Every structure is written in structure tokens, then in C-alpha cells.
Amino acid sequence: MPNVPRRLLLLILILSAPVRAQIDTVPDGVEPRGSETGSAPTVPGGLRPWIPWVLEGGPEGQDQRACPIDPADGARLCAWPGRLELVLSGKGGTFTQVWQVLAESVVPLPGDADAWPLGVEVDGAALPTVQRDGRPTVTLAAGVHRVTGRFVWDRPPDALLIPPMVGMVALVRDGHAVVPAPRLDRTNRLWLGEPAGSDTERSGDHLSLEVYRRIQDSLPLDVLTRLRLEVSGGAREVRLGPVLLPGGIPLRIDSPLPARLEEDGMLRVQVRPGRWALDVVAHHDGDVSELSRPETGAPWPEREIWAFAAEPALRRVEPSGLAAVDPRQTGIPEEWAGLPVYRAEPGGVLRLTEQVRGDPDPGPDRLRLERELWLDFDGKGYSVQDRIRGQLSRGWRLDAGPALALGAVTLDGRPVLITRLHDAASPGVEVRRGSLDVVADARLESAPGRVPASGWATEFESVDARLYLPPGWDLLTVQGVDNLPSTWVGRWSLLDLFLVLITTLGIGRIWGWGWALLALLTLGLTWQAPGAPRLIWLNLLAAAALLRLIPDAPVRTGLRRLRTLTTLYFRLALLGLLVIGLPFLVTEVRDGLFPHLERPWIALGGGGSGMHTTAAPAPALELRSRMDMEATSKRERLSDALSEPAAPMPEPIDLMDPDARLQTGAGIPDWRWNSVDLRWSGPVGEQESARLWLLTPTLNLVLSLLGAVLLVLLGARLAGLVGGRGTHGAGFALLVALGLGTAVGTEPVLAEDLPSPELLQELRTRLLAPPDCLPHCVDLPLMVLAADPDRLVLDLTLDAAVAIAAPVPGGSGGWLPTEIRVGGVPSDGLRQDAAGRLLLMLPAGRHEVRLVGPLASRDQVEIPLPLPPRLIRATVEGWKLEGLDADGRAGAQIRLVRLSDTGVPQEASLAQGALPPLLRVERTLRMGIDWRVDTRVLRLSPNDFPVLIPVPLLPGESVQTPGVQVEDVAVLADLPAGRSEVAWSSRLEPTGELRLVAPMDPRLSEDWRLDVGPLWHLEHSGIAPIHRLGPSERWLPNWRPLPGETLVLTITRPPGVPGPTLTLDRVDTRVEPGQRGTLSTLTLAIRSSQGGSHIIRLPDGAEPIAFSLDGRSLPLPDTAPEVELPLTPGATRAELTWREPQPLGLGYRPSLPDLRSPAVNLNLTLSLPDDRWVLWTWGPRIGPAVLFWGILLVLVGLAAGLGRSRLTPLRVHDWLLLGIGLILAQVWVVLLVIGWLFALGLRHRMDPLTRPAWRFNLIQTGLVLLTLFALAGLLGAVQQGLLGTPEMQIMGNGSTATTLNWYQDRGGPVLPEVWVLSVPMWVYRALMLAWALWLAMRLLDWLRWGWEGLSKPLLWRELPAAEPKRSKEKRTPETEEMRLDL
């Protein structure tokens, strides 16, 4: 129940809203506070009272619409700090700051837990100070407030924490103003330690130093030097070093103490008591083969500890020259303990002997092949679909072997072009994925008895294949595979062999060895067939053996009863053989003649055609989606506009050339029938294959017929001439389980007069939505720059569309203004964000802003420009202005370079100045339809200072990204303070050979990546790549060259292999004939790579009546019988309907169109009217079969046999006519009537006096009931025959009596012909009427004959009171014997 308090609170707030609305309601026509013109949403009158509630109920808890917007992320900035004035001394100090607050906010104060502000007052009134995120803060209401406070300390702290958003600081130290303005370090601390130059040793001063170096063998090589200081005594300045190794270029200093690296390599540090760790990072340019320790003086230690971190991906080296030590015996940092550690004495040299550069010999490919093979219906070849998965590490091309004819290939679901490198080479495809998912359609036209394991010119770790066999085909055995497939031989288990041999031996011992040989053949041919008699043979053998052991006329009662039971067991076994064997024989012969009737309910052509349509969205969903998009579109546009890098979105590199003839292949069948799994374990090469012993449909038919004949012979021999009556009863048990469950859910219903929470949330979203102008709500059309040796003045013209936090020049690491005027009025409202940008609060309108600040005594000064000016007017004296392009436009920063020494005194601060920058230039060459280069310049050095370095362009490279400054053949990489990367995109001229040369500039480290599309084939020479796979396992070779190294790329375009560009994946033809004509519909699933058009030809006399493509109706073609199908690249579903004047007759052969192209998965459906009686069909093998004629043949033989019996008055013609009528109506009635007539015949021959009265009466009652059932069955059959439809037993491929379905795996351009023999239904009705009249006349004779048999000599017997027991002849045990001769 965690949501109950929240719901109760929500209900209370909702119920109290009308009362609060009387106070807070904004009258109609009055804009809310802080709303901007043209940006405030229109709010219905009923929702206006809820505006304060939805705004104050949010996470901010305040209405912030009056706050300026940060153009970087659309956030509202409600608290704006003025200049922070600090007056500090040795015993404490005071601070004063003016805050302009537009909505109640929590503002930070200077200080931290070590220097907590005391006596904080706001506008002269005391205000509580609380800690948030480790900083002192106060809460200020909306308005302009003056915040004051004081510090008290016995000794000044080393540093004072300044709030990060404060943009201007004024410091008075011991009564003297600090000029220029003090600088803060990267953690926003103002250092208050002793001034520079205080290095005089005092009593008690002590310093202990330990030096550890971590050598990272990267490109360039990095050396991290960690200095561990233990300081006692007073605060002072010390000089350490030289810190860097010879040849090292300083990169970064990470120090908790004020420190600066001098030009001579010495490190000046302002130390104070405690334990400290300082990191100095340097890099070494070029190919570094050795590192030596420099000569150092006190307090530098005699021994240094070096740790070496290898980068095997870049190069493999062998360190030598220094003594290795145990890391546990040193004070090395814990995170370095896993590295090799060496002791470096003065003058020691660490030699790095390079063994291997990059990855010239990657590991072997690890590929798996999953294959599906479809044997053609005619057995002349295979359709193959391969799926290749795994890791490709040694190349980026897959070639097929000579046996595999590639048709179409897709990579990650996208089609690729099949090419060959030269005329004698095998076809293949260019792949650009290390993690492959390749699907290839192909053909195997070789002999079907030999199948290659892979057929590809590469090795696989494993191959898993599934072979689909058409109806009628079977696999005897397989050779050359590593598994046990489900073949005819493989399905035999040891238990099966044991049972067959035991049965054969038993038959041989009882009936002779000739019959044993016949039994062995019979069981061998039928044992594995579904539904074949198996265990019933063992029951027959057991019963026959027992009968051989028991005497024919035993005297003993026990033996006599045992023989009776054994005889009954034998007869029941024979009955079981008959019950199991007859359906099996029918199924075996039927499946041999019509193999697809093994599963008649399956339509082979019923597979998915792949033609899917997407339904249009519901109107309600579409409206809701539009509302959600409108509510979030502004922030999405803002996020998209500020995303980095600024290079344009690259087009997919895997796009194929629109002029390339992309192959579509011969198509893949979509049928499934019997399947066999084949498996090879690796390595599987191109020469591996499997030998298949296939059983054709003709051979299977011969074996099925032979097995059926042998089964009949064996069953007749085992039964002999022995016959017996028996009753077979069966009981059925019915278990009914019912379950009832209901679930009732209730939903809370809000009052109709209160808006829903969703509507209130939508109101809040709309009210707080950023303006439409973001991120371009402020612009800088003009900047006037005036610089003299001591001061810089910037006059800005800013246009603000809304109240905005406008970014102004200057910021962390660069120039900082000390004076601001807006419209000539002094202003201190300058705020600094987390990225170091300076923000100035401006209302909507045009503003003249002046920024004034001193120029430092450095040789160059960087001025960040977060808002690039449209026009710059500059007047400089003693400086050179850099950062403008040829048209006078500026980038992200400009730079002032001092022309002469002005004599300005050095800064007293020990803050580290700008170190030599290091940039990594990552170039990604993308070679697709168009060639381009995506360049990303990443700063490896700290981003505290601006950087402007020229980056050379590649041969033939043309920059396309706007705003990038290009000078000669280089791009000026402009990185202001706080920015770590810049990117641009260029066009590259295609060439057959491209030479990449790494520049010699030590400030640049090159990184080359190559993204080659499948249109091209690449060979490279020179340095070896270090990586071959990029993100998402894409093939993206990577080179990290040293300065001056060269890589030569040879690019060729392999020609495409000739092949079809249009494939008919499925053809559905539906024909509906009638008395006056035929209506036909052709549906095509077309896959085209070129688009264009395809022409098909309709039958002569055809009149098109409907035409559609992908569900869109098109005008009817006027070029019949030829019809042009407009195609687009990809999959298309075409549907064409026409009619023709061909009526349905006795023999009907539909006219079919000419597809003008081969096709797969051809389906033909013939839909006949309900008034037609189908007699025969002809067409492809997989289609409907009329089984009535087979049943009729069986019926003729059965009638001939029954007519010879004298138990009934029916002769052969009577049985034949009776059977024909019944199987056309109700097949099961045939068996019922036969049983009824033979039961009456046996009653004729029965003597009522030889049986007990109760048994005779039971038989009479049963005969009466059987007669009633038989008559009811005959009446139902007559009714079905006269009113129903004939049961012609039409089945196969999902066919029925009126819907005939044919399927062919491959064909075209001409569709396979079909033919149907049918007559009108009145013919069947007339024949059934004649049969019914004949049956009525004959039935009267049969009933008369039956009554005579039932009533003579008597109809019913009275049960006697008692019957004397008959005397039994006594036999002595000596007269009995048990025969044991088996």
C-alpha cells in the first residue's frame, strides 16, 4: 500500500484547488508573470485557476517562467550572482555579494567545512545557513538581496572555496587590493598560501620525497611521474627536479598544492605540512627505444621505481637494462602492483626492444555454417540457403567454391552484390563485419547423391545442415557426416533388430524356415513404417506356441480351460493383426501412390509469402502521438542542435551503387516435409562432402507394394484356415473438469468537474515548454574589439528574442572581464556554468554590452567565443589577432599574440600556465558510393586552456562542414577552454592508390580508421593495423602511425557476377470457373533489385478487371494480353484479376498466364462451384487425389469375395451396388450393413435347442438391435445421398471437394497445366435416386429373408426351472499327453 498516502495527498490538493483558485486566478486576457510575447501557450479558461498549482507542485516547487533560459540546455536560471567582494586578513575576513533572484532559490556561499561563513545576513537580517552538497547555502526569496558574512580563523586556510556559479571576484588582502583579479584553480578554489618566493629554510622544515614512474607504452608513449611528499614545518616554496625524463613533453599536472613546471623542467611547489601526492604526465614523441633517468639534486631520492605497462595491441616490446624488483618490497601505488617493476639508479637506462608492431597475423577465422537444403521435386538439384555466423578476423571477403552457385546474399539483412576479383576467380561477397550474419541463397546442380559440406572457400568450425526431402523421397543412409542422422538405417535400434530376429526365428521354428525368410523380408520392409504391426507378431507367436504345447482334446479340466483361453488369445491376436494391418495396408498403398497424402492436411504451398501490410494507426492513437510529439519537440530540437560533433550525419557506408545489378537469385522454396539433420565438426574445409543414398518415389512405391503383399501372405499363413467368432467389447471412460474464475477490478473515478492528472501534467508541460527559438534565441551580430598592451575592451551588440542567459566572451582558462556595462549601466550579474562559460542575464530586446578586463603578462591570450559573432571589428595595439578565417569570421575562440615585451611584472600566483598541447587526430575514411573523411580531433592534454593548431588535410580532401577554418592544406583545430574535441566532415576524391603520411608535428598523434563499403576491395601495405574490428563488430581496421610513417592503400572495384535481378518468390493463381466464364486472380511476390517494370502475358481473350501493387489500386492496363508491372527496388506484391469467356465443362483445363520469368513456390487453386461433381484430377504431383476409385477397386474385390459366401442371399452385383452407394454417402455404414447381413445368415444356420435359453434370447435381442441400427444407417445413407454431396475422398495439399490445390517447387515462365473431369451435381442426384429405389426393393427381400431366419424354428424360448447336468466321459490321466514338438 505504498501509494495510498500519495493518493490521499493528491485528493486533498485537488479538493482544495477551487478555494486556492479564488486567490490565484489570473483574469482572462492577463498574461502570467514572466511570460514572453508570442511564447505563452493559450490556456482554456477552465484551466487557468490550476496554473499556480501545477507549477508550484512540480519538483522545483516554484513558478520559474520569469527566469532566463540557458540556451545550452533550455534550463531556467533563477539565481544570478553579482561580484563577490572578499576582504581577508590573517585573522579572518568578510564577504559581500548581491544576488538577483527571480524565483525562490537556494544559493551557495563562499567557504566550506574548514572555513565556514559566520553571521550571514541578507539585507541586514540574519538568515540561517545550512550545508548542502558540502557547501554552505541560504534560501533567498524572489528579489534583489545583499548577502554579507564573515570568516574567523587563527591562521588563514590554504584555499577558500568559491561557489562555481560566481563569475566575478574582487579580493582585498591585508588591506591591499589584488590586481589583476585573482585566478581560481580547476576545483574553483582561491589559494591563500604564502606568496611566491618564500623558499627560505626555517627551523623544523623537512621534506621527504619518493618518486614512482608509470611508463605506458602507448602512441605516443606516456610517462606518469608520481611524487610523494612528506612535509613538516612551515608553508614554503620548493624546487624539485628536473621531473621529466629526457625527451619528455609535459602534458598535465595534477596537484593538490599550487605547482608550476618551469621551462628547465624544474617543478615549483608551494608546500605545507602534510602528506601529498603530485602527478606529472608527459609524453614522448616518435619511436621510443630507450628511456634514461636524468641527473637530479636534493631533495630528489637516489632510487626511483619504474613500472612498465605494455600495450600489446600497439606493439610488443621486451624491456631490459634495469633491475627488476618485487612490487611488494616497494611503496608503489596499489593500482600499479600488477605491472613489471624496475629500480632506476642515477644514469640508468630502460631499453625497449620492439618485437612486433601492430597485429600483422591475426587469429584464425571462427565461423559456423547453418545450412538448409531443399531437394528438387524432380531430384535434379538442391536449393540451398546458408547462414554464416561467427568471427571473421583474417579477411573481409567470402568466396564460394566451384560447386556452389551463389544467387543472392544478404549481410545483416541487407542485400550485397556478388562479385569476383578477376575472371578466373570464384564469386564471392565483400563483408564488413567481424561478427558475421550472412545469409546466402544458392543452387547445387551436381548429382543429388553427393553434397558438399560447405562449398565455401574458407574453413568452418562446424557445419549444421538440415536436408528437406519432398514427399515420396527417403534417405536410406549417409556417409561422411559426424552425427547419426535420422535415415532409414539410422532409425533401426538394437531393440528393433532383436524383436525382428526373435519373431523371424519363432516363425521358422513353428511354420518353417521358408516362411521365416518371408517374415524377415516383410518385417524389414514394414517395421519402420508408421502404424505398422509390430508387437502383435509376438502375441501371435506366443499364442501359437501355447497351442502347440496343449493337447487338442485334453481330459483334465485345467488343461481344457487353458486351451480355451489360449485359443481365444490366438483369435484375439489375429483380430488385432487384422485391425492394425488393414488400415496400415490402405495407408501404405495410398502413400506409395500419393506420397503427399501422408499428411493430407498440410498444404505445401501454404507457407508465408512474406507479403505483409502495415495497418494505418487508429485516429485516437495518432492524435495522442501528435500531442506527445508537440510537447517534447522543442527540447528534442534543442538537444539535436547542441549534439557534438558538429559534423553532418554521414550516409550509410553499406549502400549499394544504384547502378549495380544486384542479384536476387533463383528463389528459395518455402515448403517443409521430412527433414534430416546433418552435422560436421570442424575444421570443415571446402573439399568435405557427404554421400547420400536416396530412395526415389518410384522405388518407395515398389517397396510399399511389395511390403503390403508380403504382409498379406504372412498374415494368411499365420492365420491358416482357422476362424472363430469372438466378441470384442470396448469401454470408454469420460473425465470432465470444469473451472470457473472471475476477476472484478474497479478503477477510481474522478469527479467530472476536476481535471484529470494527465491533463494537469499536460498543462504543466506546455507552460514550462522552452520557447520555439531555442537554441538560437540570442545572437551576436557585432563585436568590436579594442586591445592595448594592458587592457581588452569588447563592445557587444546582443539580440535576445526572450529573456535569456546570454553567453559572453571569456571564461575558465582564458580571458576574464572585471567590468561589465549593459546599456551604459554597470552590472555585476555574471554567472559561470559548469563548463566554464560566462552567462549574462538579459531581457528580450537589443542590448549594448561592454566587457573590460586586464590582459595577463603571457605571450598569448585566448578569448573563448561561446556565441560566434557575425561581424568583428578589431583595433589592436601590441598584439596580433589570430583565429579569423579569410572572410574575417571567427570560430569558437580568438587569440591575441603579444608582439613585444611590455615590461608588465610577472604574476605572483604559482598557477600552472598553458602546457604544450597534445591532440589525437582520428580520421575515419569512408569509402562507399561517395568517398568522405570524418575527422575528430580529441584533446589529450587538459582543457583548461584554449588550443589553436593546424591539422593537415589528406590528399584530395575537401572540407564540407560549415564554420571550419581552412588555411592552405590544413584545418585550424580551434578548441577553446573547456572543450575537448572538434570534428568535421570532408569529401575525398576517389583514387586507385591513396598514400597516408603521418605529420611530424609532435603536438599531433594520428589515428587512422578505414570503413570500406562492399563496392570496393582493399589491399594495404606499410605498417600493420592494431585493430581490425570497430564498434558493433564492424570491420574497421585501425592504424596508429608514428610521425613520418606511410600507409599505402590500393582500392579496386570488383565487377558483379551476372545474375537475375528479378525473382518471383511466390506465385498464387486462383481460378474460379463458372457456367458463363472464368474469373482468375494472379498474386505475385516479386523481389527486384533494379526496379523498372516486368511484363507478363495473360491468356488470349482475357479482360483485366482489377490491378493493385502492395495493396494500392492502379489503373487497369490497356495493353492486354500483355501487362506491365511497375516495380521498385525491394519486395513488391502484385495482384491482377481478369475474366475470360471459358466456361466450365466436362473436362476443364484453365488457361494460365505466361510469367516471362522462372519462379518458385507455384500455387494453383481451382475453386469449383458447389453444383459440380469432381470425378478425376490431373496436374503436378503435389495436388488433389480422388481416392474414391481406389476404394472402388477394393470394393470390387470385397464384393467378389462376399458374393461367394452362401450365408446371405446377396450375390456379387448386389454387394457391389450396395457398396458403391454407401461409400458415396456414408463409408462407415458399409461395415455395419455387412455385419448385420452376415449375422442374420449365421442365425439361419444356428440350432436354437443346442444353446441355453438365456444365450439364445440374448442373441435374438442383439440381432433385433443390430437390425434397427443397420436400418437407421441405411436410412441415413439414403438421406445423405439424396440431399448431400458425394464423398469422393478428395484430399491432398489441403484440397477439398470444391477447392483443388496444386503446388510445384520450381517452374515458369509457363505455369504447370492442370485438368479436371467433373459433371453437374444433378447426375449424382439421379444416380443416387436410382440407387435408393433399387435399395428399397432389395431391402424388402432382405428383410423377409432375415425375418425367416430370426423366427424359425422359434422366436423366443422360455427359461426352464432347472436343467439336469450332462454326464461327462471320464478319462484317465494316462490317456492324456502334451505335445512339445514345436
TrEMBL record:
Key words, A-Z: Membrane, Signal, Transmembrane, Transmembrane helix
Residues that span the membrane, as ranges: 510-529, 567-586, 692-716, 1182-1203, 1215-1242, 1254-1278, 1322-1340
Residues of the signal peptide: 1-21
Annotated region described as Disordered, given as residue ranges: 1363-1382
Protein's name in the database: Uncharacterized protein
Source species of the chain: Thiocapsa rosea
